[in-house]
Specification:
Number of domains: 2
Shape: globular
Distance between the termini: 49 Å
CATH class of the largest domain: Alpha Beta
Number of strands: 14
Strand order of the largest sheet: 7-8-9-6-10-11-12-14-13
CATH architecture of the largest domain: 2-Layer Sandwich
Structural class: alpha/beta
Number of helices: 9
Helix content: 25-40%
Low-confidence stretches: none
Length: 321
């Protein structure tokens, strides 16, 4: 098993500690957090080993799980990679694209692997239909959350929308052509609601909305492609797949048939893919362990995390204008 250590023991860091400790892919060595009071409480409650410096933790492990504030991702990752350690970085990968690109180059130089924590890639609803998403030409996403002071130190684009940006980039096999965006701050010092329109070179258009001042939570994406509509509810972990095929000459009397202006008849079929429930955070962590063990490309590589950050930062720039 791989020896792993966690940097950062905040809300998400504690979840990572628990899951790594439960996993049969890792041995949890311990954690580091600059807040000694919090660290001692965690040690007393769970018995995890506490390291009093980042360097000591990095030296003791094979994999460094970085669950610190985004501003410190780069510094922590550089220290770990230079010592030949594999790194798992919570999203977004870093604070700037330049930092992310340097991490990519450094990881290649040191021969280590890195993965970015875009957890929605491992959402069971998305996993159940990802193979059915084939050359989508219009995508619409809504990621709405009730207000929570935690995370409002960054724009809603980097807090919420980046999840959908990454998911979209993973299924649209085309470079980004143009981005339009708007948004506003309502409660926070940074934008609380934003909308972005991403146009790809192959003609696909994605319309994304993210808000952290909604009255209800929603995390839905809709993919429209030739003869199919696919809906993914990331929150309730449900999917809907509607497909159209050429109608048979003698359709069943209960078949749902549509006829276009040219007289072509299409029959509508409803599919219900099985959603295999999982713990998405555990799945992403264990997938990373498998990539290390098998020497394969991680499911969400540093390059993919950088691509999502690049688009997200462009949206932030446009929203700020």
């Amino acid at each position: 098993m791989l020896k792993a250590g966690v940097l950062g023991a905040g809300h998400l860091g504690k979840i990572h500690l628990k899951l790594i400790n439960q996993s049969d892919k890792y041995t949890l060595v311990g954690f580091y957090d600059p807040d000694e009071k919090t660290a001692k409480k965690i040690v007393a409650e769970f018995g995890y080993r506490y390291f009093d410096t980042i360097e000591a933790l990095i030296d003791a492990v094979d994999v460094v799980d970085i669950v610190t504030p985004t501003l410190s991702h780069y510094k922590c990752a550089v220290e770990a990679i230079k010592k030949g350690k594999h790194v798992f970085l919570e999203k977004p990968i870093t604070n700037t694209v330049e930092e992310a690109e340097h991490l990519i180059a450094l990881a290649r130089q040191q021969g280590v692997k890195g993965q970015v924590g875009h957890v929605e890639r491992f959402n069971p609803a998305f996993l159940s239909v990802k193979d059915k998403i084939d050359n989508p030409m219009f995508i619409e996403t809504h990621r709405l959350a009730e207000f929570n002071p935690r995370g409002t130190d960054v724009p809603v684009v980097l807090d919420l929308m980046i999840h959908d940006i990454d998911a979209i980039l993973s299924v649209v096999n085309s470079p980004v052509k143009e981005i339009h965006a708007s948004g506003t701050s309502v409660i926070s010092q940074s934008p609380d609601i934003a909308n972005a329109r991403i146009e790809f070179e192959n003609g696909c258009v994605a319309n994304l909305t993210a808000s952290r001042i909604s009255l209800k939570n929603m995390r839905k994406s809709r993919f429209f492609q030739k003869d199919a509509y696919i809906s993914v509810d990331f929150l309730d972990k449900k999917v809907e797949v509607v497909k159209m095929k050429n109608a048979p000459k003698e359709p069943d009397q209960y078949a749902l048939i549509l006829q276009n202006a040219e007289g072509e008849k299409k029959q509508i079929y409803f599919e219900n893919p099985k959603v295999q429930q999982n713990n998405a955070i555990l799945a992403e962590l264990e997938t990373f362990a498998e990539a290390i063990e098998n020497d394969t490309i991680p499911a969400v590589s540093l390059e993919q995390g950088t691509a999502a950050l690049r688009v997200a930062l462009k949206v932030v720039e446009l929203v700020g204008k």
